[in-house]
Structure to design on (336 residues):
C-alpha cells in the first residue's frame, strides 16, 4: 500500500514538472509576438496593379503671375501612369509607378494687372515639356485592415510620399517668320549654358519628390477606384528652360542664331504659340498710343546680366486624377 501511494505521488510530481516545462517552452516572448504578427500579416498581403488618367499643371517661371502657386489652367495637360502596389501591413503599402506628363506654359497669358508679372508678357517665352517619371512611394491608409483583401473597408482615405527620377527635355516654337516649328531648347544653351563664364548645361535627369492625398473606393471584390491629388517638387529650375539671366547675343552666336532667337523674343509681334498679335499688350505695357512700333530693343531685356528668370524658386507640378486598381489573388490561396 505504501509503495503504491509513493508511486502515485512520484507520477503526480513528474506530470506537474513536465507541464510546467512545456508551459515555459510555449511562453511567448516579444520577439515571438513580432514573428507571429509578421506571419499573420504575411498571409494577408496582396498585390494591386493599375493605371491612372490625370491632369497635369505646372508651376514655374512661365506661370501667369509671380505667385509661387500660380498656374495657368488653360494649359492643363494629360498625365498617364501604370503602377504596382503591394500591401505590407494593415495600413502600409508600397507602390512603384511609371508616369508620363506634359507640362506647358506661355508668357502671352501673363497677368498684366500684376505689376510684378507684366515683364513676363514682354519677355514672350513659352515651352512644352514631356516628362517621363519613375517613382516609389509609401502609401499609408487612414483605416486599418487586419484581414485579407475581401475584408477591406469600402472607403479609405490615404496619404503617400516617396522618391522619384524624371527625364525631361523642354521645347519651344521658333518665331512664326521662321516656320513656327518645335525645337529642343537644352542643346541651344539659351542662357549661355556650356559657354565660358556661364553655368554648365542643366541635366535632363532630375530628382523629384512626390507627395499627396487620396481616397480609395471599393467597387467590388477585386476592383477599387481612387482619386488622388499629388504635388511633385523638383530640384531643377529648368523644366521650362528659364532660370537665370540673359546671355550676351554675341556669345549665343549672334542676332541671327537660333539660340539667340529662342532666348530673346521681346521684338516678336506675333506670339509663336498663341499665334496672336502682341501689339495691344506691348502698347499697354509701354503706355504708348503713337504710330511707332512697340517692338524694339528695351532696357532690361536681352543683354548679359538682364534678369530672365528667378533661380531661387524651383519648378514643380501637380498631378490630379483617377486611379483604377485591380487586386491580384494571392498565389496558392483561393478566396472564399
Amino acid at each position: 500500500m505504501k509503495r503504491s501511494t509513493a508511486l502515485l505521488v512520484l507520477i503526480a510530481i513528474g506530470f506537474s514538472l513536465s507541464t510546467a516545462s512545456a508551459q515555459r517552452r510555449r511562453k511567448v516572448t516579444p520577439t515571438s509576438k513580432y514573428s507571429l504578427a509578421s506571419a499573420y500579416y504575411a498571409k494577408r498581403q496582396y498585390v494591386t496593379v493599375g493605371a491612372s488618367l490625370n491632369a497635369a499643371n505646372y508651376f514655374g517661371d512661365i506661370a501667369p503671375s509671380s505667385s509661387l502657386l500660380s498656374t495657368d489652367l488653360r494649359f492643363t495637360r494629360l498625365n498617364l501612369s501604370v503602377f504596382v502596389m503591394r500591401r505590407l501591413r494593415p495600413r502600409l503599402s508600397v507602390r512603384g509607378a511609371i508616369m508620363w506628363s506634359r507640362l506647358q506654359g506661355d508668357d502671352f497669358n501673363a497677368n498684366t494687372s500684376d505689376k510684378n508679372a507684366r515683364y513676363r508678357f514682354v519677355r514672350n517665352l513659352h515651352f512644352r515639356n514631356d516628362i517621363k517619371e519613375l517613382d516609389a512611394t509609401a502609401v499609408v491608409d487612414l483605416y486599418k485592415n487586419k484581414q485579407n483583401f475581401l475584408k477591406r473597408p469600402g472607403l479609405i482615405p490615404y496619404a503617400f510620399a516617396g522618391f522619384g527620377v524624371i527625364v525631361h527635355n523642354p521645347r519651344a516654337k521658333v518665331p512664326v517668320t521662321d516656320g513656327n516649328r518645335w525645337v529642343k531648347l537644352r542643346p541651344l544653351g539659351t542662357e549661355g549654358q556650356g559657354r565660358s563664364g556661364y553655368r554648365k548645361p542643366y541635366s535632363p535627369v532630375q530628382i523629384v519628390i512626390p507627395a499627396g492625398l487620396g481616397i480609395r473606393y471599393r467597387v467590388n471584390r477585386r476592383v477599387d477606384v481612387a482619386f488622388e491629388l499629388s504635388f511633385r517638387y523638383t530640384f531643377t529650375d529648368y523644366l521650362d528652360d528659364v532660370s537665370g539671366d540673359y546671355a550676351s547675343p554675341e556669345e549665343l552666336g549672334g542676332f541671327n542664331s537660333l539660340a539667340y532667337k529662342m532666348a530673346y523674343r521681346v521684338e516678336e509681334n506675333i506670339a509663336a504659340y498663341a499665334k496672336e498679335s502682341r501689339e495691344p499688350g506691348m502698347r499697354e505695357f509701354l503706355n504708348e498710343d503713337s504710330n511707332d512700333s512697340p517692338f524694339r530693343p528695351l532696357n532690361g531685356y536681352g543683354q548679359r546680366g538682364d534678369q530672365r528668370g528667378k533661380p531661387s524658386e524651383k519648378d514643380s507640378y501637380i498631378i490630379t486624377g483617377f486611379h483604377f486598381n485591380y487586386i491580384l489573388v494571392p498565389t496558392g490561396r483561393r478566396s472564399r
Confidence is low (pLDDT under 50) at residues 7-11. The chain has one domain: 44-328. The CA atoms of residues 181 and 279 lie 22 Å apart. The chain is about 15% helix and 35% strand.
